[in-house]
Amino acid sequence: MNSPAINLFLPISLLLPVLLFLVLATGTGCDRTPAKPSLVVYCAAGMRRPMEALAAEFQEKEHIPVELQFGGSNTLLSQIEISRTGDLYLAADSSYVLLAQKKRLASQNYPVATITPVIVLNDAVVTTVESIADLIQSDLRIAFANPDAAAIGKICRTSLQDHGLWDAFMQRIQDNGVTTPNVMGVATAVEFGSVDAGIVWDAVASQYLGMRVVQDPILAAEHSTIEITLLTNSKHPELALQFAEFVSLTRNDLFAEHGFHSKIPAHSPSPEVD
């Protein structure tokens, strides 16, 4: 009379080793290796080449992925303010870092390099241009970075306003020119001949072929300091500061290799702004 119970028990007992194997093989998930942290860096477009090289070198050395998001300095600041994400912000001018700090979006910052605006002409241009005044009076097609989005546009606007040339310059852009979201758009347009002239950072001009540089006295007086700053919403502040020091101190020479004026600080980081 007990045989049916024995027959029912046997198949179940045979399944137990299989079930035990599956549990041991898959585990509970508690002993899985946690995902490696990564860094998100908002980076002014004109710094693309040195920053890509630095990010690749840092990743290879420290095994920490670095994601670079490029754009105009002011455009990036707006993205940071809206998203409240990311670890570091590298701006083409220190004024944007100061603004980020005043908005409590960023804390300590490190100077990286300096840059200066220059006029660039496509190699095919035969018109003589020796100054911004010559550019305004010419019939050349001009590209200019949006002053409400890019650091170079903002700096040039202030400088030309101080010298009473801004209105005439912008009229030339409206009559026979284009605006771009960032400085790299200007450089590319000049290099490929879609425009005749533009204003870019001196370091950016050195990275492009097919154009010649004109040093304008007014623009030459403007020196912008590139800075990298820690974002207050960083998920990995210690790693972020490690990369910031790598950029501004350890491998700052890479900026010089790409035509920037290296600016190794005497002390770091800069104090936070109240």
UniProtKB/TrEMBL annotation:
Entry superkingdom: Bacteria
Instruction: Return one GO MF term.
Output: metal ion binding
Give the matching InterPro entries: ModA, ModA/WtpA
Q: Which GO terms describe its biological process?
A: molybdate ion transport
Which residues make up the binding site for molybdate? 73, 183
What Gene3D superfamilies would the database entry show? Periplasmic binding protein-like II
Keywords of this entry = Metal-binding, Molybdenum, Signal
Database matches in Pfam families: SBP_bac_11 (PF13531)
Family as reported in the entry's similarity comment? Belongs to the bacterial solute-binding protein ModA family.
Q: What is this protein called?
A: Binding protein
The source organism is Calycomorphotria hydatis
